[in-house]
Write a structure and sequence with these properties.
Largest sheet of chain C: 2 strands, antiparallel
Helix content of chain A: over 70%
Number of strands of chain A: 0
Chains: A mainly alpha, B mainly alpha, C mainly alpha
CATH class of one domain in chain C: Mainly Alpha
CATH architecture of one domain in chain C: Up-down Bundle
Strand order of the largest sheet of chain C: 1-2
Number of domains of chain A: 2
CATH superfamily of one domain in chain C: Cytochrome c oxidase-like, subunit I domain
Number of strands of chain C: 2
Largest sheet of chain A: none
Structural class of chain C: mainly alpha
Oligomer: heterotrimer
Largest interface: B-C, 55 and 69 residues
Chain lengths: ~100, ~190, ~675
């Protein structure tokens, strides 16, 4: 662990990350208004942007990148479990009736 | 805090309370997951005439989302200041985070009253129910976060600085606060933009 | 250079509780052993209440067209029986075992968060009292045009929509009155208790292990606690939100689960069983753990296939999240889902079967001691196999649609939860009796208890299999004479009363032996795990010094060596070792600092029921009381230190804190 352990970023780095987050948010809002132009691509792009912001905040602000792998496993475990379970429920309740 | 001095502890190398906090956050995923799932299933089922999506004020919500996003920055700066043992700055950033959170909450209250005046009550239709419960549940989390931040700031003011023990608390509150922020990142996209 | 700022000594709202004996020492305790004992007694009390409710049900069903209970009373009784047994009896009794044994088995002095532990206990008590206050304050009205025209008695003013609360039946339209609100909010409060204890146990197991206690050296009971805690942590949030929705539907006019407003009643079933099926394993896995401790001890052999049992436990926990829809085969789910969930239900039988064979392998060729805990453990295996096999029959969808909502299902889950979980729990109660009280239970009475129980149990639940296949329907208060179901129903009722007698025998044994039983020797069972290296009853500090573990079943290998054929041979030094351990256990040579007792968990916990009442009766004053209690509890908790500091130790404290920070900055790999 000690070799892979990285120092936490500096305040300057944090501000840079925040600027990136702000830009991503701006793109999201822009996508919302240009939905007619972008068409069907808008929704997946919005999801990708949200995932990107999510990962940035979790990884850098919550220091998950720098944490013990155990914590990473917990968090990833919770995410994966939730995604699988709720995907099944959603398919069942929203789509399943068409089978 | 371990209970005895000579007693071995923390074979995982992670501070016990921090580990507990992360486990709590992992289960919070399931809380919000259930709410978001319900929201998505009921999306588009607002049949008694009016559509809540029509009265969304996207510029306003974008600004308040931005405010919450930036509160994550001030939070991480507070944490960083404490690591540098800069007590003065720590308290400034803590207060700034709490204020930004309060601005977000005020924005949510304003938004709710606006929608209410436009005729959307909690029980108007299934979409408005899920909207209010989902965003309200998140708002409750923000509120708790603001209270915790203010309490920590108050302790810092009174003692003219935060002790190591409080510093550990700051880390937990920071984790919680960032988590509330990432939930909003998801909600902003899922509820408002898509 | 880091400057350390000492926290100022603060005046707190109350002076710190300091009594070490008497009722206040129990109420304010944060000692995991005392909390465990209180959990045990409270849960046993609710077990008796739930049993009483079951007896009322059985009297009603003992003959056709009976009039002992009204339909409304019957509905209330079966709902409260199920809810009580699951949430107020079996779960907290398992929590009692976790609390008492977990820190001992991993060689710790307490759990990771002692005050949170007290908090979970008091929230459980608050939730239980809240739920049962429905008999005093609740109302269960008649649905429009429903079955009820008579006056609703107090006995019937309890939740009556089933422990699963299916919508819209449990909604305001078909279950008017406040009783179902008591149910929804009561479960919500109880859920918080379990959730808090789950965090606590996971962190305890990961971070409080003693020197050398690697994960794969932990006793199986600890492993099962670990698995159960994960199940709790990841399944309870789902039901918490679903119960929120129910409360909103009933109190604030939303329609989350009501079709008339665009809601989705089947969504409730999904959310409920997403929690409800892991819950089944939450109930049974602790018993698996207990039995895995009892069998090796009384077979005088190591547990057969320790890694297999551990991984099977986690396999069950993991697959347990993926089988929920088999409760809904008769509901609106797609054929694809039916096939998928049928398959996963068959698959989950595999790790369960692995465990059964491991237990059989453990007793195979062992020198068996057939005393009470062992008898219960063997009874557990037998009964659980029956329940498991009838469970696999549910995975066949066409068969299941026939069995759904008949007594066949009732038979199945009682074989699993009574013949399984409760037999395991009784095995554990006898096994650890000498540890907790320092005295032996009465073996003769114990055996009478076992035989009464196994006979009564099979008479009660065995005939339900064929009653169900003959078509007797669950949750129905009468059956007609012409159905010819009367004879076996009478047998079932007789069986239930035999069970009641068995429980009385158990109680007599317990109360007598706790005070007048023989003094227990230091290591009465010649056991294998760490809790037995402490004196009985365990002193408040658990271990005089941190034990160091060198292998799985370390204590056993300190006492026993092997001859050339691999047979266990007792070392000459074993007896001296025991005497030495007892000596050391009572006389620690270092000063031990234990967490101090606290009022605040209690205060915080009892804020919650007030909030519950406030929601039901839309009362601002009640809400204020609740919030004030929560604030006092939270503020007092936050400002009081975990352990009262000693003036002389101040200097050391600073140093240790500094050390721990240094450790933290450079995390070491395990």
């Amino acid at each position: 662990m000690s070799e892979t352990h990285k120092e936490h970023p500096t305040p300057t780095k944090y501000v840079q990350i925040a600027i990136i987050l702000a830009i991503l948010t701006a793109i999201e809002v822009a996508l919302y208004y240009t939905e007619d132009v972008v068409g069907a691509l808008a929704a997946p792009l919005l999801v990708i942007l949200a995932v990107g912001k999510f990962v940035i905040v979790v990884g850098w602000f919550m220091h998950l990148r720098y944490e013990n792998s155990l914590i990473n496993k917990f968090f990833a475990g919770g995410m994966i479990l939730a995604l699988i379970l709720f995907a099944i429920v959603m398919i069942e309740r929203a789509v399943g009736n068409f089978f | 805090m371990s209970d005895a001095h000579a007693y071995p502890h923390e074979p995982t190398g992670v501070e016990t309370r921090k580990l507990g906090m992360w486990i709590f956050l992992s289960t919070e995923i399931l809380f919000f997951g259930t709410l978001i799932t319900t929201f998505l299933i009921f999306k588009g089922r607002d049949f008694p005439g009016m559509k809540l999506t029509d009265v969304y004020d996207i510029p306003f919500t974008s600004v308040s989302s931005f405010v919450l996003l930036m509160s994550s920055l001030t939070m991480v700066l507070a944490h960083n200041a404490l690591e540098m043992n800069d007590q003065e700055k720590t308290r400034v950033w803590l207060l700034a985070t709490a204020m930004l959170g309060a601005v977000f909450l005020a924005g949510q209250i304003y938004e709710f009253t606006e929608f209410y005046h436009k005729g959307f009550e909690l029980s108007t239709n299934i979409f408005s129910s899920t909207f209010y419960v989902l965003t309200g549940f998140h708002g409750l989390h923000v509120f708790i976060g603001v209270v915790l931040l203010l309490a920590l700031w108050g302790i810092g003011q009174r003692q003219k600085g935060l002790s190591l023990n409080d510093g550990m608390n700051l880390e937990f509150i920071a984790l919680y606060w960032h988590f509330v922020d990432i939930v909003w990142i998801v909600l902003f996209t899922v509820v408002y933009l898509i | 250079m880091t400057k350390i700022i000492q926290p100022k000594k603060q005046k707190n709202i109350f002076s710190r509780p300091s009594s070490e004996e008497g009722i206040w020492s129990w109420i304010t305790t944060v000692d995991h052993k005392r909390i465990g004992i209180m959990y045990g007694y409270a849960a046993f009390f609710f077990l008796l209440v739930g049993g009483l409710e079951a007896l009322l049900l059985r009297i009603q069903l003992s003959q056709p067209d009976n009039n002992f209970l009204s339909a409304a009373e019957y509905n209330a009784m079966f709902t409260m029986h199920g809810t009580t047994m699951i949430f107020l009896a079996i779960m907290p009794i398992s929590a009692a075992f976790f609390n008492y044994l977990l820190p001992l088995q991993i060689g710790a002095r307490d759990v990771a968060f002692p005050r949170l532990n007290a908090l979970s206990f008091w929230i459980f008590i608050a939730g239980g009292l809240f739920l049962y206050s429905t008999f005093l304050f609740g109302t269960a009205g008649a649905p429009e045009g429903g079955y009820l025209d008579e006056e609703v008695s107090r006995l019937a003013s309890a939740p009556n929509g089933g422990w699963f609360g299916y919508q819209p039946n449990a909604g305001l339209k078909y279950s008017p009155g406040t009783a179902m609100d008591y149910w929804a909010i009561g479960l919500q409060i109880l859920g918080i208790a379990s959730l808090v204890s789950a965090f606590n146990f996971i962190t305890t197991i990961l971070n409080m292990r003693t020197k050398g206690m690697r994960l794969m050296r932990m006793p199986v009971f600890t492993w099962m606690t670990f698995a159960v805690s994960f199940l709790l942590a990841f399944s309870l949030p789902i039901i918490a939100i679903a119960l929120f929705f129910v409360t909103f539907d009933r109190q604030f006019g939303t329609t989350f689960f009501l079709t008339e407003g665009g809601g989705d009643p089947v969504l409730w079933q999904h959310l409920f069983w997403l929690f409800g099926h892991p819950e089944v394993y939450i109930l049974i896995l602790p018993a698996f753990g207990i039995v895995s401790e009892v069998l090796p001890t009384f077979s005088r052999k190591p547990l057969f296939g320790y890694p297999a049992i551990v991984f099977a436990g986690f396999g069950i926990a993991f697959i347990g999240f993926g089988v929920w829809a088999h409760h809904m085969f008769a509901s609106a789910i797609s054929p694809v889902a039916q096939a998928g969930f049928g398959l996963s239900t068959m698959i989950i039988a595999v790790p369960t079967g692995v465990k059964i064979f491991n237990w059989l392998g453990t007793i195979w060729g062992g020198k068996l001691t057939l005393n009470t805990p062992m008898l219960f453990a063997l009874g557990f295996i037998g009964m659980f196999v029956i329940g498991g096999l009838s469970g696999v029959t549910h995975s066949v969808v066409p068969a299941d649609t026939q069995q759904t909502d008949t007594y066949y299902i009732v038979a199945h889950f009682h074989y699993v939860l009574f013949g399984g979980a409760l037999f395991g729990i009784f095995s554990g109660l006898y096994y650890w009796f000498p540890k907790v009280w320092g005295r032996m239970y009465n073996e003769a009475l114990g055996k009478i208890h076992f035989w009464l129980m196994i006979i009564g149990f099979n008479l009660t639940f065995g005939p339900m299999h064929w009653l169900g296949l003959q078509g007797q329907v669950r949750r129905t208060w009468v059956y007609a004479e012409e159905t010819n179901l009367g004879f076996w129903n009478l047998i079932v009722t007789i069986g239930a009363f035999i069970l009641a007698v068995a429980i009385l025998v158990f109680m007599a044994n317990w109360m007598y032996s706790r005070r007048k039983g023989e003094k227990a020797p230091f290591d009465p069972w010649d056991a294998r795990t760490l809790e037995w290296i402490t004196p009985s009853p365990t002193p408040v500090w658990n271990f005089s010094k941190a034990p160091e573990v060198k292998s799985l079943d370390d204590f056993w290998y300190q006492k026993y060596g092997e001859d050339e054929d691999g047979r266990a041979v007792r070392k000459d030094t074993a007896d001296d070792l025991l005497i030495q351990l007892e000596e050391e256990g009572f006389n620690p040579d270092e000063e031990i600092h234990l967490p101090s007792p606290s009022y605040f968990p209690l205060i915080l916990a009892f804020g919650l029921p007030f909030l519950g009442y406030a929601v039901i009766y839309k009362s601002i004053p009640l809400a204020l009381i609740g919030v004030i209690l929560l604030l006092i509890g939270g503020f007092g908790w936050g400002t009081e230190p975990l352990e009262e500091e000693f003036e002389s130790a101040e200097e050391d404290l600073v140093n240790t804190e500094e050390d721990s920070v240094n450790e933290e900055e450079s995390p070491t790999n395990e």
